[in-house]
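Exercise (ungraded).
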Amino acid sequence: MQLDEVYSGLTVDRPAKLVLVVLDGVGDIAVAAHDNRTPLEAAKTPNLDALARQSAQGMLIPVSYGITPGSGPGHLALFGYDPLQYQVGRGVIEALGLGMELRPGDVAARANFCTLDAKGLVTDRRAGRIPTETCQRLCEMLSAKIKRIGDIEVSIKAGKEHRFVVVFRGDGIEGPLTDADPNTEGLAIPQVKPRHPDNPRQQKMAKVVGEFFKIGLPVLAKERPANGFLMRGIAHQPHMPSFEERYRLRAAAVAVYPMYKGLAQLVGMRKIEGPQTISEQFERYIAEYDNYGFFFIHFKYTDKFGEDGNFQSKVKAIEEFDAALPILLGKRPDVLVITGDHSTPCAVKGHSWHPVPVLLHSAYSGSDGLDRFTERLARTGSLGMFEAKYLIRIMQANARMLDKFGA
Amino acid sequence: MQLDEVYSGLTVDRPAKLVLVVLDGVGDIAVAAHDNRTPLEAAKTPNLDALARQSAQGMLIPVSYGITPGSGPGHLALFGYDPLQYQVGRGVIEALGLGMELRPGDVAARANFCTLDAKGLVTDRRAGRIPTETCQRLCEMLSAKIKRIGDIEVSIKAGKEHRFVVVFRGDGIEGPLTDADPNTEGLAIPQVKPRHPDNPRQQKMAKVVGEFFKIGLPVLAKERPANGFLMRGIAHQPHMPSFEERYRLRAAAVAVYPMYKGLAQLVGMRKIEGPQTISEQFERYIAEYDNYGFFFIHFKYTDKFGEDGNFQSKVKAIEEFDAALPILLGKRPDVLVITGDHSTPCAVKGHSWHPVPVLLHSAYSGSDGLDRFTERLARTGSLGMFEAKYLIRIMQANARMLDKFGA
């Protein structure tokens, strides 16, 4: 019997309130350049400290040992979906990041403009990183020409510099396809093919993409340097059991950036639009408190400054979060969790594989007697180190939503 | 999707240097007889202490909870091969321990001389533990008589006391077979049978072993007390994906004892012959630094003195290792790991199931702020407690050899 089925069988309907606060990329490592302290250790966090004294702590492994998760797997794991089982294509993630509305079954491709020579060979895979405005103009030209291919609707949206996304909507299509990208310069753009050659939906999708190139390339023929384009990660939005059915919790996402709203939407959470700062996010949570059983609140800046390798700004972001925390604590849900989707150590300047500290407060969490919420203390906490996909089950248990197993 | 496939898909080619130092059986337990200190705690290790201050630590579970690994599973796990999936027969391990060169497909059997009565019943399964010299003489007699059986080459090599190994090489054979050993006295030697009766390669192998007994037993008929022999663990060298393909690292083994060279060779590492002391091993590593991406350096004496229950000598072995450590640290690889293949507590006088401390140093390990490398401190470290088979993936991550998973 699958463990997921066991959990489902034990889950009871109960008017509970669960709150998951994600400090994106909050986890870090202690290095000599920063006095062997992590940003969580260096930050002044009186409110978080007070909460820590009444909470349990532990460490999360987002995917598995040594694996650095993207934002997709990092969040799906926190939502309780095994990120190895539910893999979301790059096209879908990029579409979500641009705020495109995806429906189940939509096929999305990550695309970018490139430069082709007279023979059709790729001479620059990024078309000299054209300005975003040029990208927008070229996307409009493509959109004007390609609204449908047969019975398939086509949506095109510009990203930054040379990047854009194409979404295909209609019956009888799915991914994944091979890439329309030689992955190196000096070669022609390869034709896409079904990853599973016998799958008729992938066959249809490959024809649609072939047609997209046939119509689209002539549109750009006179442009310089962006007279061509490539497509990668062509896949459909995978079927995901809805969050509400799975956990019997009506869920809302209070996020600022489109990517995280999109990831929440993938599992059926409602997006709460409007708030721009963490204080506004918390205020909105308080306002919506009675309307949902589960809140996902996303804070981006810990990750952003980790990616920049900017230790002081990551510290400040944590302090800014701490200053807003009393607003969040205005309501006392059954379970409050503060954690990250992955680590983004300043020394790495990117996502990493390092385990992520987690804090859990409930009437049944007990107190670990720890004075602060840091990596070093969290690894001595009562929750131990465990795969992030189990976190939501521990939250449900703390909300008394899981029946006894066996007599 | 299998996790191994995920890791393979994420692995990138990169000119990296990874070093795995195995202090065989280093893990121990604190008992009152030794002031509740382990050998790692009792030893004076200034060099290791300095390294510990800049490193991450954790605990390894070699196979699973409560399982005491032999040297084979202990090392295969450190090499990243699931020891439950890749089981190597006792015959193969013994052959490697005697320094016999095995090729993929060779079938090896662990054998020993015994005493038979006039009816052919086993009266002493160890033939009174005959001296090693007698064993050598008897093996030479058998070798002289049995060089081939049909198209199968036969090699025989004496071990200690009553023990020897037989290796069969040729086409169309494989193991495992049942044992030619009644496992108790007063019974006849059973005929070997295929473990899978329908497997024609095992059928052929069973005939070859039957023939070996038919020719071999008369050779010993007049000997006393060793007038017979038994065979166990008859199996072929299993197919193992090569270390180099699996991790994209050209690997070398710097070991003194044949068993560990053999285990490294099973996964395709090159053996570096010559060095006899740990200082010589480290010097040779420095000399070969440019030639390999992965070094496995094996230190035997922590295990040896643990097996003897000799606490003071195990402490001294650790101090001897520490004294040589500055040679190793003459090069700074991307990742340096110091750990054991299992624990060999002095109080157990043998291998044990206890988790094993591990130290990992890299530019991205962070510092756990621990002043020494000991069992007690390692279990508070940032790596947590995990199955040894994942260690190499964490090493690859620290060497930036694993791409991000998902977008």
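Further reading is listed at the end of the chapter. For now, observe: The interface with chain B takes residues 28-32, 36, 38, 59, 63-73, 83-84, 87-88, 90, 93-94, 233, 345, 347-348, 350-355, 375-376, 379-380, 384-385 of chain A (CB under 8 Å). Chain A has two domains: 3-87+241-398, 92-236.
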